[in-house]
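Structure tokens
________________
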Amino acid sequence: MCRAKRESLERIADRGKLPMFLEKYVRECRKAEESRRGGRLPNLAGFCRWLGCGVGEVETLRLTHPAEADYLAAVMEDEALNTPAVSPTVVSAYLKRRLGYADKTDAAAAQTECGEVRLIFEHDISEDGA
């Protein structure tokens, strides 16, 4: 149950209010970006915190309202890809972990006892000015 809005994320989706709440959250993040250097990246955890619920409700939403959950993920992806305040490395890690782009077989292989684990980022470090 989302404390701040007094209803579950599912109920918000049932009423068709998810886009409205999501847009309010994104606007607040943009205001934070404009008011201080570094900005604020809209993200699922931040959205849940803003609503007063946990990330588990997003997982439930994926099962009960897949179209709304897909929309939520699309908005977060668009915001992450189009924000100038965050480095490409952070955006890449965010997209892979929170939006489900990480290869599931890589995650399973990392949990096995097979020796050395290496992290490989598909990113050219010279592109982000580092």
Q: What stands out?
A: Residues 18-35 form the longest helix (18 residues). The CA atoms of residues 93 and 122 lie 10 Å apart. The mean pLDDT is 78. Helices lie at 9-14, 18-35, 44-51, 56-64, 66-81, 88-98, 104-111.
